[in-house]
Structures are given as structure tokens and as C-alpha cells.
């Protein structure tokens, strides 16, 4: 099959890539919930086993690997502009799992008042994902090594990379030298690195898939260059994202990071792979509308009231999605007084105080004993 510059009529490819991205994000969210379940189940018992010795934790780890693999392969079949925004599916699934396991008894009126915006966010994410998938780029280029090099040395890509490097250096100067720990500056650093990562992830994934199909691509130097850039940029942005979570509210970091990372990922795909070159104005406008709706939906979901504690995000190095993302750890988990655990809120609605997590207490110093105490009986005051 001739891949030189050929653009395949890729409705089937887009469908495969979209389904893989959705499946991968859902599976990763489930895996995080399963691993959280394992941690707290172990903490609520008197066993002193390591979490990696439990079958539940390893089940979650296997789900994580399968989900990340599906996300990684999806970049070989669908454009960046479609796959990158679908990371909202992970936020949506994590929040839904939080409601499923949330043990909170509220009247319907109070529940709707407290979580109405969250369900509105669900609707917006689903509707926005439908729009961006339906009106996203409809052409897909097979990324052989020659095509990747041709894109890389083109003047639009070189100009884009130059502007990105200058912007990154300026932001890094203010962050490191001027101690400007503003959320926007840190997440812009993450997003700029993320745009490089998604470009390299798509190239590496595409060349691996072509190699599996029978067209060897791994012996070209461009594959090694892309692979090294992918790993290095992902590791550095994971560090910046971790710093953002330490300095700022995690829910705000989650929403702003998704917006910035998705914007720069789509922009990188449009410049590097020319994904919108064959699209008309109507399709582009509808795609942008779908992306904006997704942004608003993610913002509403992640800004759930802290009192509910449904969304408790954490940083994971999501190599397959190109950028580190913030996933939901699941709802706050608290062991019950009875020795079992409640996978839900901090407050026990049954009115029973939750049992504290087991801790190792130091042996108290021994004091003088009475003759009665030495025989194992407490001293009794006699009249």
C-alpha cells in the first residue's frame, strides 16, 4: 500500500480512534476507583500488608495499562483534534463513579440543589463530545517516517516551535527567577510541553501501528527522536502539574489544565499535521462550539462543592494521552465504625462516628507499679 502523502478516507479510522479513546479514558477512571477501593479496604482492616500484595490493586493496575494502551493506539487512527478533547470522558466517568459509591442520604430537592450544576456539566460534556466528534477533522494521514520529516521541516511547524520555545523560556524565567507561582503561568508551561508531547505521541503511535501492519518504521532516526521527546516532555510537565496541585486548589487546576492542554493540543495538530486544511468554516465553527461546551462542562463538574468531596483529583502521568492529566481519585473514603468501610462521604449519615485509620503507637514509658498492679490487678481504693 502506498502511504506517500496519501490521505485515507478515514471515517472508519476516526470511528476506531474515537471508540478507543473513549474506552481508554473510561477504563482508566475505573482503574483508579478500583485501586482507591483497595487502599481503603486495606486501611480499614488490621492487616499490615502492602497494597501491591492485594488482588484488587493489581486488577486496577491491569485496567490502567489496558486503558493507557487504548488511548495510545487511538492517536494512530484519529486526528489530535478529536482524541485530545475526549479526555473529558475521564473526568465525567470519575465523577459518575463518585456518585455511585457516594453514601449520602439527601432529599430529592436538596440533592438537586446541591448537585444540579454537576449534572448540567454531564450533559454539556456529552453534548460537546458529540459535536467535536461529528464536526472534527475528517481526514487522516498515514504517518510514515518520510511524511513526519516533511511536516517537521515545514516553515509553519518551525515558526510554531520557535514561538513556543520563546514563550516557554519567558514563562520559565518568571516562574523560577521571579517566583511568579501563578496558576496560569504553571499550567501554560504544562500545556506548551503537552503540545510537544501529543505531536510525538501521534508520530510514535502511528509508526508503531504501521510497523505492526508490515511496513517497518522503527529503523528510521525520526522514530528515536520522537520517542525521546515524548518521554522527556511528559516527565517534565508531570513535575510542573504536581507543583500546581501543591500551590493551588486541585479542582481549579483540573479544569484549567484541561482547557489549556486541549487548546494547545488542537492547535499543534492543526499546525503540524494540517488537520483542518480540508475542512470548511461551518465544520470548524461547530467543532470549536463543541470544544467550548466540553470546557464548560468540565469546569462545572470539577467545581463541585468541597463539602460534598466528590471530586478529589490527583496527578497521573498519562503518557498515552500526551499530557499528564488530573483524574478523580474517587469519592472520599472512610472506614465505618463496624470495621467495614463506606465508599463515600466523610460524614457518616447514620450518626455513628467513623473509626480512625490504624496507626502505630509508640510504647508508653513504664512507671512505678503498686504491689497490686504487679500482680495484674488495678489498685482499689478501700473505705
UniProtKB/TrEMBL annotation:
GO terms for cellular component: membrane. The chain crosses the membrane at residues 15-35, 56-76, 82-102, 114-133, 153-175, 182-201, 221-240, 252-275, 281-301. The keyword Amino-acid biosynthesis does not apply. InterPro entries: EmrE-like, MFS_trans_sf, Mg_trans_NIPA. Residues 362-383 are annotated as: Disordered. Keywords: Membrane, Transmembrane, Transmembrane helix. This is NIPA like domain containing 3. The lineage of its organism: Eukaryota, Metazoa, Chordata, Craniata, Vertebrata.
